[in-house]
Amino acid sequence: MSANSISLKSRAVSRLVVAQRQLDGHGFSIRRPLPAEGLELVDPFLVVDEVGPVDYEPGEAVGTAAHPQRGVETVTYLLEGELVHQDSRGTRAQLGSGDVQWVTAGAGLVHARTPSQRIVREGGRIHGFQIWINMPRSDKMMSPAHQRLSRDEVPTAVSDDGRAKLKVIAGRAGGQRGRVETRIPLLLCDVTLQPGGSTEIDIDDGHNGCFYVYGGSVAVPAGESVRGQTIEEGQLAVLEREGRLHLACPDFASTAARLLLLAGQPIGEPVARYGPFVMNSEDELEQAFDDFRAGRMGQLHATD
What we know:
- By secondary structure, this protein is mainly beta.
- The chain has a single domain (13-293), classed as Jelly Rolls (Sandwich), CATH 2.60.120.
- The protein has helices spanning 117-122, 282-293; strands spanning 13-18, 21-23, 29-34, 45-56, 64-69, 72-80, 83-87, 92-95, 100-104, 109-115, 124-134, 145-149, 156-158, 164-170, 172-173, 176-177, 186-193, 198-201, 208-215, 217-219, 230-232, 235-239, 245-248, 257-264, 272-274, 277-279.
- A hairpin with a 5-residue loop joins strand 13 (156-158) and strand 14 (164-170).
């Protein structure tokens, strides 16, 4: 069976990771299921952070200080709140609830994400995701790029009974195609299942996949190494590499199931990573630090 074909069997869970609540280096309250002990990546996905939910009082909200990146793509998917992105290429974009920002760092840039002035002044809730996606060696030194989608630009598929909703950010699902242009074949989808709702999602055989439950619980077929079929809030389910994904919210559930699905073609190249840089060798990491210190990734000139 080719890597681009779809199997009709159910794609089972091979591993579960429980995300623990922690503070990242910038002071954000996060749950980070990836990377985890014994699971450095789900190629090509390097980092999955659930940021918040956190309710800030006036004057409390924090953001990420200016920092460089190279060799990686970073995705911000904001569920609630307002954030402002600024980078050394002169890009400034404000994100609201439901918006998506996809930054291709490529050869390198300096950027920062901060709460909006309104959130800083009045307080409010911040909740969303920060995802790092590796880039193939051939693309790591490309010119940086930026894609932004408003909530209205994210295609949505709804089941006939209205109990399943898929917001497709990248790739194809539910008859919809995401509007983000990706370097390699990827699927990034936000799934909501009401009690009794279910959906089936095709993932190319040979592609890696995982999903993170951030609300409620989800039932899936059991794999050989995982007993039981219910994935709870705060858990990351790593999927086997063949089969169609079946997801369901139990009839008896008291709340909807919400999860973020990530799948993609594995890159299969050496990964050398340190801090904000993801390259293929230690020498390339050293060069990245040299280029940043020499100002070759630009400087961030923050604006109000």
